[in-house]
Amino acid sequence: MRISYAWLRDYLKLDIPADELAEKIERTAVEVDGVIRPSEGLKKVVVGDVLECVPHPDSDHLHICQVDVGEDDPIQIVCGAPNVAAGEKVIVALPNSWIGNHTKIKRSKMRGVVSNGMLCALDELGFDEKLVPKEVADGIFILPAEAKPGEPVFSYIGMDDEIIDMSVTPNRGDMLSMNGTAHELAAIYDQAPTMPTVDLHEDASELADDELNVTVQADEQAVPMYKMRLIKNVTIKPSPLWLQIRIWNAGMRPINNVVDATNYILMQYGQPLHAFDFNSLTKGQVNVRFAKAGEQLTTLDGEERELAATDLVICSDDRPICLAGTMGGLDSEVTDKTTAIALESAIFDAVKIRKTAHNHNLHSEASMRYERGIDHSATETALDAAAALIAKLSDGTVTTGVVVGRDEDVQPVVVKISLSRINHVLGTDLSLDTVAAIFRRLDFPTTIDGDTYTVTVPARRWDIHIPADLIEEVARLYGYDNLPSTLPTGQPTIGRLNETQQIIRDSRKLMESAGLTQAISYSLTTEAKAKAFALHASEVTKLDFPMSSERSALRLNLISGLLDDLAYNNARKEHDVALYEEGRVFFSQPEQVRPKEVEHIAGAITGSMVQTAWDTAATPVDFYQIKGIVAGYLKSLALAAPVSYVATTAHPEMHPGRTADIYVGEDLVGFVGEIHPATAKAYKVRETYVFELDLDALIAQPKEHQQYQTISKFPSITRDVAMLIDDQVTNAAIVKLIKDKGGAHLRKVQLFDVYNGKNVPAGKKSLAYTLTYQDQNGTLVDEEINKAFEKVLTALTETLGAEIR
């Protein structure tokens, strides 16, 4: 909401700097984004009087103008605007002046003719092109006839004003109007605001009811109030300059006198209005109803829209002519041929308008105010004010009476609260009179009985309903910075991370120590990517109003986001990338109201993790390297149950021969492996290895207590064993058997040779292991080790059918 300081002075006696006023608003009411000074940075821009305008001899569109700028002699300026003419007052940028976008104007020649400056359009002074009136959009701006040549131009076009740009919170919709803001500032500075009055003159010879018939078919919750007036004999023309200045300084574009009048009243009262061309209505019939699914309406922006059953529409003889509270229809638009106006002022349900604005992506000044609330007591007043202004600006007449489709009995809210309660909540010691004065400044009629206030809250402050709201008002106006500050009492606690937070933080450190870089991906993705790489079966949670088709569903995995990151890097010639991400995925079942959020950790590696050097060759990452990272990470968690890796083909996005599910005991906690070549092609990445782990499941697993153990002082003994064994027997099964039968002193089992070629029978492979034995408390002897070793050999032969070599 842009508030004109000059307009504010119509309400209040303010002589403080705009920056100070903005700071006061921010500390007391709502956030302020800044103070805008339209003329800031502009220099030597003055009023000019075009004395002579002749065509340029070497151009079919340029003109040579002699312009009076208040100096002894006129200056010559070459201008290409189609609307420049002798006798017009114009905006002149003198030589060495500064205009919009920090542009300096110098003397120059145009087609051989000297030009001592420039005749300016509004956008060349820094105006947003969307705010420039259409009639001067392609030319220079023409100033009023009373403008004096040589004077600075800023006061004539409102650029000497200061604009306070407020970011109004949803609970303070009353400040989306000049009246509401004036009431707030009057309370802050303890002034009585001068509020606008309505001077409406009706034509007693014509009754609005005779020509305009309004019915409301929608329920009372959707449309609590709907009223119209009829203005006849109007002449559509540009608005006077004072009104255009008020409109564009508020951030809106001047259109014509009728539309500008409705926008002016919108800014003044906060009440959206809409003007219909009365002659476009069928026999003066207006009805308000919900749309029929599939109905069509072409709105003022030229877009044909398919309506939903939840949309409120204004109809004429059941033909949609306006999307209620959002945007009018093109068929009933006010044009230069309009001679009569049907003016609407209404209250629509905030939820209905919000849904319509979202569904059609139509967020207008009107819909913004309906979504945040409207002063129900000012609806008819705003209607009368707009009708009076339209009649004045268009030389029209207002027919007698308001046509009421539905009315509402608007009553103020009465709230009781005690002084002791206010002081208890705020920690203050305010007196009865101090609080009563605050309610008086707010213009809330109040009676006092003992220490209890009975406060009557006017309808313009619809955000106040309960005692807590009044306490907030007292705190705001008393000043948050005046509230006493106290230290908390009680035994302080030592801040620390809980177990889950500590494991998550340690997980990040471990991944980074393994050579992976942290990535943060979007939680929102496409439905296809959300389903991919899912660790558990789940429904996909879809957004009702996604920002884009690429962000329409909540993710079920982290890998798809990491693959997008790899693709981004690969496209920029970065082929050696190792990333990890710790974040949440969202599992959902049909009966769940909201998805379950689960912490996961995942990694993705492509290329090589070892940089090429004079003595080192780059080695592409493989399954065993990424499995080693996962194994090291799981070992750091000190899980009580054993970790096992089981080959799987259950993940269609993964390579069927290079993927393993990861179990802790009997619980599936993740998977690791290479992505399928088809998946790599779809994501536009090279050969990539990934893992994903359910971090919540790992945190919930029982943990072993890690204890310090000294390094043994005694020597170790090793034994090697080589065997022929069936191809189907896995290394994991062999190692498990050796550890089970190896005895108490077996410390390590290391595979050091694998052979499957010449002199090895078909269906067999040759494996060789080193077994390391060591005692913590003494020196081992060969006899003891030999007995343990023989048990291992026997078990390998009898259990796995191994042939010892």
How does this model look, in words?
- Its EC number is 6.1.1.20.
- Mg(2+) binds at residues 463, 469, 472-473.
- This is Phenylalanine--tRNA ligase beta subunit.
- Its main location: cytoplasm.
- It comes from Lactiplantibacillus nangangensis.
- The chain has 805 residues and is α+β, with helices and mostly antiparallel strands.
- It has six domains: 2-38 and 162-189, Phenylalanyl-tRNA Synthetase, Chain B, domain 1; 43-156, OB fold (Dihydrolipoamide Acetyltransferase, E2P) (Beta Barrel); 202-406, 3-Layer(bba) Sandwich (Phenylalanyl-tRNA Synthetase, Chain B, domain 3); 413-482, Phenylalanyl-tRNA Synthetase, Chain B, domain 1, CATH 3.30.56.10; 499-700, Bira Bifunctional Protein, Domain 2 (BirA Bifunctional Protein, domain 2, 2-Layer Sandwich); 717-804, Ferrodoxin-fold anticodon-binding domain (Alpha-Beta Plaits), CATH 3.30.70.
- Helix content is 26%, strand content 29%.
- It has 20 helices and 41 strands.
- Strands 3, 4, 5, 6, 7, 10 and 11 form a seven-stranded antiparallel beta sheet that branches.
- Strand 4 (63-68) and strand 5 form a beta hairpin.
- Helix 5 (241-249) crosses helix 6 and helix 7 (350-360) runs antiparallel to helix 8.
- The longest helix has 19 residues, at 782-800.
- The termini are far apart.
- The mean pLDDT is 93.
Looking at this protein, list some descriptive labels:
OB fold (Dihydrolipoamide Acetyltransferase, E2P), Phenylalanyl-tRNA Synthetase, Chain B, domain 3, 6 domains, metal-binding
